[in-house]
Amino acid sequence: MGSLTGPLMRGSDLFVYGTLRFPEILEILLGRVPALSPASARGWRVRALPGVVYPGMVADPDGVADGVLLAGLTEAECRLLDAYEDPEYEPTLITLDGGGRRARAYVWTGPTEPYDWDPVHFAEHELARFAENCRAWRSR
Asked: Residues 21, 122: contact at Cβ < 8 Å?
């Protein structure tokens, strides 16, 4: 799998499956909401992570990761999102369902919980507090 950087990665769309799939978070971090479209990737699973409210995507031959494709990110926005992500995420080029389109995604390299992350639970119980933390991070 391996980390991919440079023009290939910067020029590709970004598949997001966790907190970045929420327009509220994108607005806080980027100052806008880029073009969004539903997407999924077979061979991946979105897992809960120990001690945090955000998830990590890990390889799983039987899994399907649901998320959103972000298009039209600028170089500055890509750098900002790279800085925002935890160091245990590795930017990786993945193949999406529905035609073999490829996109950049942040793949988790650390430990996970033995269950999937629940975006509905996050939206209902964690999103408001997480958004405040993002505002604080962005203002630094």
From this structure: no
How many other C-beta atoms are found inside a 10 Å radius of the C-beta of residue 74? 12
CA dist 41 and 5 (Å) reads 20
Q: What's this model's pTM, rounded to 2 decimal places?
A: 0.90
CA distance 74 to 85: 17
Q: Which domains does the chain have, with CATH numbers?
A: 13-139 (3.10.490.10)
The model's pLDDT over 13-61, given as tens digits with 9 standing for 90+, comes to: 999 999 999 999 999 999 999 999 999 999 999 999 999 999 999 999 9
The whole-angstrom separation of Cα 107 and Cα 131 is 22
Q: Both tokens of residue 92?
A: 């990786």
CA atoms within 13 A on the CB side of 54: 23
